[in-house]
Design goal:
The structure holds 2 protein chains of 2 kinds.
Chain A lengths: L1 H20 L1 E7 L1 H17 L3 E7 L2 H14 L6 E5 L3 H4 L6 H7 L15 H6 L2 E2 L2 E2 L2 E7 L1 E5 H4 L2 H11 L9 H10 L12 E3 L7 H15 L2 H7 L21 H14 L10 H9 L3 E6 L3 H5 L8 H4 E4 L8 E8 L6 H11 L2 H11 L6 H5 L1 H6 L3 H10 L10 H17 L6 H15 L2
Parallel strand pairs in A: 1-2, 1-3, 8-9
Antiparallel strand pairs in A: 3-11, 4-5, 6-11, 7-9, 7-10
Chain B lengths: L3 H43 L2 E2 L9 E2 L3 H8 L1 H32 L5 H8 L1 H4 L2 H11 L6 H8 L11 H30 L2 H9 L4 H29 L3 H7 L10 H11 L4 H25 L2 H5 L2
Helix pairs in contact in B: 1-13, 3-8, 3-10, 6-11, 8-10, 8-11, 9-10, 10-13, 12-13
The chains are: A alpha/beta, B mainly alpha.
């Protein structure tokens, strides 16, 4: 009896000491990568019982201000966070320089980490702000163009399309082609269309419009004429700027991109009132034939009754124009963290080859590593991934990563929305109003 | 004649009582100063600085530059339009509807049940209400468009056109806040002396005439106070806009308070500029409320 009590007391004491001495890592995350991060944290804790990880999802709108508030105050409320690539410039001063930390602590560096395995664009945009390495690539993303494979392969529809447009029905490679195909699949213009609308578009007055516009503007910006006029794209300033850091969209190219969007709107269900959720639903319920969207949508569409059998009905292609906007997240450490060693080991695991593969196979989070794209299991699961994803990520257009980005974004989105609504004319003069405000904010 | 010492003792006792009273109120005063006046003063102070957390720079005194920038800021000026529209349309609608419902519901069958049901919108958190309304307004799959289609009305883009998105936000505001107006006026109606009304009915006045010429004048102070409360609330509208339209499309539903939130939080804590925007809103609220007090002669009505 006495021995039993003693064993119980000792066990409790050991448990108490284990909890007291455990390293508790607080990980902040956006909701779209929280599930994957949670599983990776569980795996890491199983291998490292002395570390306890708590993943806290914070909404997209809340996460950035909270990170910034914590970093500038030096409070150290979190140890690790996922950060949106656009916020790189603003948060960089408060984040730990991972390269410097690795040099100071070579014993913590995982010999299998293989830094060279990261896709070069991903390595920079999800990892660096100028010379400082503030994260490891965690969540790769470039927008894709999803389409109804069964409709595009339908011989009857192919024949009708050819009779009407004099060319084969194919997944559009340019926005001009997309307009024709979208019209063909819109019942208002083609009563025989199997879908109500040709394309689902999301042009609300939110950050969504900021990246959607880039899908249309970047093909002009990155064309040989665009490069000659605006210069090469800088990965920090992004496609909205010239090589000299001046706004590039207040130009004929910017107007033409907007006109492409306006032309397509008539083939979409409520484009100005739709955002991510609405377009996801429109494609998932078979209402539209095409939709530009992020990779994570695949996970929800896979369960959609209207899209079964999934492999036969859903196709994935590079965005028309070939310059889809990039998204994605890095995983970094708070410079004020008191648990840097454990945090460093955890982020190495979460962004490892194993972590990257789990993220794609289970959560449809875009890979950031080349080896994952070559992995036999991944190739068997998603044969289209390597070609479409690499082409999308390598040709991707980028939003600014400078600290002023949120403010610049809001100003442009406001005017773009007014133009799409017809409240402002689609002219260079209108876009100049935005460019002038941008220059005032940037002190140019 | 009492001796001087008596009066001195009385005065000292009074002074002591005052001091004790002050000391007892002091903790509350400190809380009030700490939580209200200090942040307010600090906000006014910061409005003269350039200070944004995203820039990682120390606050820099810039005088009235933030205020000057507001008048050149397209988003700030365009946000005023919708805020004024809300004031002009939603607030009077809420007061009229609240008054009408309170009058009609009084002494009717099932009064208690209806009263309870009517209060539900007010009790629903704005975030939940926003999500629910967004689903109701859904273009393709929303119930509102479905029911309209039963009457042959084509689908309405509630969140994608200027007119309907504005109407949509106004409808939500009216839905959520009419119950509050109703509740206060209903309670007011119940507390009015019934004998005057009954006397007028005996004299041959109709129910509406009694309401129009007896009850309504007696309710006037309450209506004016409600009007002021709703005006202040409408000027601060944020949650519904944030949840349902995010200010769009264009600048159709972009309210001024929503813009303050974006500048102050989403833009990376631009504290200086957001403070200046807030100070201007505060001045506008104070001016408007004072104007209302004067126009409605509230000082005399409430014997202030």
């Amino acid at each position: 009896m006495k021995r039993g009590i003693l064993v119980g007391v000792v066990s409790l004491l050991v448990m108490f000491c284990a909890v007291a001495w455990a390293v508790n890592l607080v990980v902040w995350s956006s909701p779209d990568n929280a599930d994957a991060l949670y599983e990776l944290a569980q795996n890491f804790m199983a291998q490292n019982p002395e570390v306890q990880i708590e993943v806290t999802p914070l909404s997209w709108e809340v996460l950035y201000p909270r990170i910034l508030q914590d970093l500038t105050s030096g409070a150290g409320s979190f140890d690790v966070t996922t950060w949106d690539l656009m916020t790189a410039g603003a948060i960089a001063p408060g984040m730990l320089d991972l390269d410097a930390f690795a040099r100071e602590h070579p014993e913590l560096v995982d010999p299998n980490f293989d830094d060279a395995d990261f896709i070069p664009t991903a390595r920079y945009v999800y990892g660096f702000w100028r010379e400082k390495r503030i994260g490891y690539p965690f969540y790769g993303a470039a927008m894709f163009f999803f389409y109804r494979k069964d409709l595009f392969n339908d011989p009857v529809l192919q024949e009708k399309f050819k009779a009407e447009y004099g060319r084969d029905l194919a997944v559009p490679k340019t926005w001009e082609e997309a307009k024709e195909v979208a019209k063909f699949f819109t019942r208002k213009f083609n009563p025989d269309s199997p879908t109500e609308y040709g394309i689902a578009l999301m042009f609300p007055r939110t950050h969504t419009l900021f990246y959607m516009y880039l899908n249309f503007f970047a093909p002009y910006r990155r064309s040989p004429e665009g490069i000659a006029k605006f210069g090469e794209v800088d990965l920090d300033w992004g496609d909205y700027f010239t090589a000299t850091g001046l706004p590039a969209f207040n130009s004929e190219e910017g107007v033409r991109a907007l006109q492409d969007m306006i032309d397509l709107m008539q083939y979409a269900p409520d484009p100005l009132g739709s955002d991510y959720g609405e377009t996801l639903e429109a494609f998932g319920k078979g209402l539209v034939a095409m939709v530009p969207q992020w990779t994570a949508c695949l996970a929800s569409w896979k369960e959609s009754p209207a899209l079964q059998p999934f492999e036969e009905k859903v196709g994935v292609a590079v965005m028309p124009g070939g310059a889809p906007v990039s998204g994605g997240w890095g995983l970094g450490i708070n410079a004020a963290s008191k648990n840097k060693e454990a945090a460093f080991r955890f982020i190495q695991y979460a962004t490892s080859k194993e972590g990257d593969k789990i993220q794609w196979l289970k959560y449809r989070i875009g890979p950031t590593r080349k080896s994952v794209l070559e992995d036999p299991e991944v190739l068997a699961d998603s044969p289209w991934l390597k070609e479409a994803y690499l082409a999308s990520l390598e040709g991707a257009s980028h939003r600014p990563r400078i600290p002023e980005e949120p403010r610049l974004e809001d100003i442009l989105v406001g005017v773009l929305s007014e133009i799409l609504l017809g409240q402002q004319p689609n002219t260079v003069e209108t876009l100049n109003l935005v460019a002038d405000e941008w220059k005032r904010i940037l002190g140019k | 004649m009492r001796p001087l010492a008596f009066w001195v003792t009385i005065m000292l006792a009074k002074k002591r009582a005052k001091t004790i009273g002050f000391l007892m109120v002091l903790p509350l005063l400190m809380v009030l100063l700490g939580l209200t006046l200090y942040p307010f003063g600090y906000m006014v102070y910061m409005s003269f600085f350039r200070y944004s957390l995203a820039s990682w720079e120390k606050p820099q005194f810039i005088g009235f530059s933030n205020y000057r920038d507001i008048f050149r800021d397209r988003t700030a000026t365009s946000s005023v339009d919708f805020t004024l529209l809300l004031l002009a349309v939603a607030v009077p609608l809420e007061v009229l509807l609240g008054l009408g419902i309170a009058f009609l519901l009084r002494d009717t069958f099932g009064e208690r049940v209806f009263r309870s049901i009517l209060l539900i919108p007010m009790m629903v958190p704005a975030v939940v209400a926003g999500i629910a309304w967004k689903m109701l307004y859904n273009f393709e799959f929303g119930p509102i468009n479905y029911f309209l289609s039963l009457f042959g009305i084509p689908k309405i883009s509630w969140l994608g056109t200027q007119v309907f998105s504005r109407l949509g936000v106004i409808l939500i505001d009216v839905w959520q806040w009419t119950p509050f107006v109703f509740l206060v006026l209903y309670a007011g109606l119940q507390s009015l002396p019934r004998d005057i009304v009954e006397a007028s009915l005996v004299d041959g006045a109709s129910g509406f005439a009694a309401f129009r010429y007896i009850e309504l004048p007696l309710l006037r102070p309450l209506i004016f106070v409600l009007l002021i409360i709703r005006v202040i609330d409408a000027l601060k509208i944020f949650d519904i806009v944030y949840m349902v339209t995010f200010g769009g499309p264009g600048s159709s539903t972009h309210s001024y308070s929503f813009y303050i939130y974006k500048v102050g939080v989403s833009f990376g804590w631009d504290i200086g500029y957001a403070s200046a925007l807030s100070v201007l809103l505060l001045i506008a609220v104070m001016l408007l409320v004072n104007l209302l007090i004067r126009v409605l002669r509230l000082k005399e009505t409430l014997e202030l």
